[in-house]
Amino acid sequence: MVHIYFDSKTGNVQRFMDKVTQITGWKAYKIGPTTTAKVPGHLVTFTTRFGDVPDTTREFMNREAKQIFTVSSSGNTNWGRNFALAAEKIATDYSVPIALKFELSGTMNDINQFIEIIKKNNYYYECKHGSIKLDIA
Amino acid sequence: MSKKFTAVNWNTPENDYALLFWEQNIKQFWIDTEYIPSKDIDSWKRISPEIKEAYKKALGGLTLLDTLQSHTGMPKIIDHITCLQNKAVLSYMCMMEAIHAKSYSTIFSTVSSTAEINEIFSWVEENKHLQFKAATIDAFYRAIDKENPTDEEVYMAIAASVLLESFLFYSGFFLPLWLCGQGEMVASADIIKKIIADESIHGIFVGLIGQDIFKKLPNQAAVKERVIALLHHLYENELKYTEEVYTEVGLTADVKEYVRYNANKALMNLGFDAIFEVKQVNPIVLNGLNTETTQHDFFSKKSTNYEKSTEIVHLKNEDFEMDATVNI
Ligand SMILES: Cc1cc2nc3c(=O)[nH]c(=O)nc-3n(C[C@H](O)[C@H](O)[C@H](O)COP(=O)(O)O)c2cc1C
What we know:
CATH superfamily of chain A: Flavodoxin domain
CATH topology of chain A: Rossmann fold
Strand content of chain A: 15-25%
Shape of chain B: globular
Structural class of chain B: mainly alpha
Largest interface: A-B, 20 and 28 residues
Mean pLDDT of chain A: 94
Structural class of chain A: alpha/beta
Protein name (chain B): Ribonucleoside-diphosphate reductase subunit beta
Largest sheet of chain A: 5 strands, parallel
Number of strands of chain A: 5
Mean pLDDT of chain B: 92
Low-confidence stretches of chain B: 300-311
Number of helices of chain B: 13
Oligomer: heterodimer
GO molecular function (chain B): metal ion binding; ribonucleoside-diphosphate reductase activity, thioredoxin disulfide as acceptor
CATH architecture of chain A: 3-Layer(aba) Sandwich
Pfam families (chain A): Flavodoxin_NdrI
Shape of chain A: globular
Enzyme class (chain B): oxidoreductase
Number of domains of chain A: 1
Helix content of chain B: 55-70%
Bound molecules: flavin mononucleotide
Radius of gyration of chain B: 23 Å
Cofactor (chain B): Fe cation
Number of helices of chain A: 4
Strand content of chain B: under 5%
Distance between the termini of chain B: 73 Å
Helix content of chain A: 40-55%
Order of helices and strands of chain B: HHHHHHHHHHHHH
Distance between the termini of chain A: 23 Å
């Protein structure tokens, strides 16, 4: 099972996640001030101010970065170089690889691409993290 | 006493987003006269007469949309929004629309003669596709110009506003971005990119307010259909407008793709799904958006008299007492 922690202020990431979970049955948790990541999983957030990470996301990552496999960010290419920059800042600050940058609530293409990327990598990350024991003793 | 008038109280949040948008808008503040489009004079001399013609028309069309938005769209909508903090944010946006409308004139004044400029403004008045855009949107604004419009009427005016700001502008934005992506007219493009950042934040905010009203509508499916029908209606017109402005310069297909791409984004701002299949946006245009510009946070990075003081040293009387023992 894939677990995803997501942040959303104006509803785009929420709608993106609604579609992803509808298609896949994965579990998604909206990040709040006290959200913890008991099970490891992926992060989907958005970019705010001028290429910034939302405060709620940062606070969550300060607590739970160890449990996060990949980061994705929503944004808008109209912000030029600041497009979805939150993903890059999180990648640098917490050493988490980027899965996807997408615009607003994402097109069907973005959603399918996201699902593919996560599917391909989730098992690897779970093994690396130790939450699944490799069967090759 | 009949009606009670309420004062806007920013010390008690009315929702969880008004202050965020207020602050973002303040940080994005700019004025046309801080930019120097005259740096583009050499570039202007280099580009072909056909592109010049399309460029002037594109900017003329944009001027009309910003004029409509600041003089009619925002004021009419503000009148029917109940949340006072949201009204304040919209008023600020309304003021920025007036700055946008003026800024195209600032660009015109460096590249065109008075006679040419007057010609563009006459073209705007005579062009039937531009007039169609303005009239179509304006009808939704005028429909709420009364005491008690229905929620649906207010919602449709808001949806029309989002379509204007997140969709209809882009047939015009295409050319300055495309030129900038190749290193031409870059100083003027700095202004255009500031306008795009503003329109982006306006589209999100007005779209959010729209979504709140939409949730209360009893006939959501029917209203959503009205919005999609309006979008198609405007889209057909955008295609014709695009052909008229861009055929000579051979960019029609690319502009149409960019128009569809932004139509999708406008729908997302309203909380709906994208409806157009978009393959690829012209990479030169995206490059135009990405080139490093003078984008700045007006208040914290600029050294003019607008600069916010962060380290204030309070002066005391003693500070003015001369030290009599100073050696000269
Ligand atoms: C105040 C504000 C600032 C933004 N700044 C950026 C930015 O710097 N870069 C970017 O790519 N998107 C920016 N955006 C766009 C958002 O990242 C985008 O709308 C995203 O889909 C929001 O996700 P949400 O609706 O789940 O909150 C900004 C949006 C807002 C409201």
